[in-house]
Amino acid sequence: MSLFNVFSISGTGMSAQSVRLNTTASNIANADSVSSSVDKTYRARHPVFAAEMQKAAAGQNESVGVQVLGIVESNKPLNVEYAPDHPMADGEGYIYKPNVNVIEEMTNMISASRSYQTNVQLAESAKNMLNKTLTLGQR
Amino acid sequence: MAISFEKAFGIHPQGLQVRAKRAEIIASNIANADTPGYKARGMDFKAALAQASSKQQTGMTRTNEKHFDVRMELNNGVGFRVPDQADTGDGNSVDVQVERNLYLENSMEYQASLQFLNGRIKGLRKAITGGQ
Asked: A6-50, pLDDT tens digit by residue?
C-alpha cells in the first residue's frame, strides 16, 4: 500500500529539515563566539542533503526519501578583528570571529521551517486519505 | 442475474491504487525539495491507470527461494517532470508550490473515488438486503 510510504518519505523529509534547523540554531547561537586562534574558531555548519538513491537502485520503487549525508563546515574566511583590549586577543592583538552570516542563517531557518511544515501537512493529508479508506463501505 | 461486484465498482479500485502511488511520488518530490541534483518525478496518469486495469506484469516465476526475483513491474507511467523554469543552480527541479497543489488535487480525487465507491457499496447493500 503506497500511501503508507508517504509517512516514511515525509518522515525522512522532516528529520532532514530538523537537522538543518539544528545546524542553523547552532550557527546563530555561535555567531558572536570569539576565540584567540584560527583553529579554535567556530565555523558555520551546513547539512548536505541527498536522495536515498540506494533504495531506488534496488528497484523497490520510484519514490525516494531524503537523507543527510553529513555536515560540512563553511570555508569562508573568518572575521578577524584588531582588538588589543579584548581579553581573548592573541599575542598580536587580534580576535577571531566565526564566518557565520546571520542574515543568511535567518532565511535558511525560515526555509527549513516551511519545508518541515509542508512535510507535516503531507503526512496529515495522507492520514486523512487512509482514514477515509479504512471506513470505506461502513454505514 | 447475479450481482457482479467487479462491474459495480468499475474503474475506481484501480484508480485508488494509482492515486495512492501518485501521492507517494509527489511526497517524494516534496521531501527532496532541498536536495541538490534531485529531479522531480511525475506520473502519466492515463498510462498508469491503463496498466493497473490491465494488470500487466512481466517476469519469471520463482520456483525456488534462491532464484532471483526478476519480477518486474512496468514503470507505472513514472517519468521525470519537465521543469517550468531553468535550473535554479543546484540541479534541483522540484517546484514545491506546483507539487503541493498536485498533491492536494490528487488527494481530492482520491477522496472522490472513495465517495463513488461508497455510493456503489450502498447501492449493492440495498440490493442485497432488499432495502431493509
From this structure: 999 999 999 999 999 999 999 999 999 999 888 889 999 999 998
Question: What is the H or E stretch that residue A130 is in?
Answer: helix A102-134
Asked which of A123-137, B24-38, B60-74, B84-98 is least confident by mean pLDDT, the reply is B60-74
Q: Which amino acid is at B83?
A: P
Q: Do A10 and B31 touch (CB under 8 A)?
A: yes
* Residues 6+ away with beta carbon under 8 Å from A123: A6, A7, A10, A11, A14
Q: How far is CA A135 from CA A28, A47, A87, in A?
A: 47, 41, 69
Nearest residue to B114 via CA among A138, A124, A5, A4: A138
Does the global pTM surpass 0.90?
no
The grid coordinates listed for B52 are 493497473
A51 chain-B contacts, CB cut-off 8 A: 32, 35, 37-38
Residue pLDDT, tens place only, B12-69: 888 898 899 899 999 999 999 999 888 888 888 888 888 877 765 555 666 777 776 6
Q: How many helices (H) and strands (E) does chain A have?
A: 3, 4
Q: What is the largest CA-CA distance in chain A?
A: 82
d(CA B80, CA B56) in angstroms, rounded, equals: 22
The answer to whether residues B23 and B103 touch, using CB atoms and an 8 Å cutoff, is yes
User: In this structure, are residues B58 and B72 in contact, taking their beta carbons and an 8 Å threshold?
Assistant: yes
User: Which residues in A lie closer than 8 A to residue B27 (C-beta atoms)?
Assistant: 5-6, 9-10, 63, 122, 126
Using alpha carbons, select from B16, B18, B2, B12 the residue that is nearest to residue B120. Answer: B12
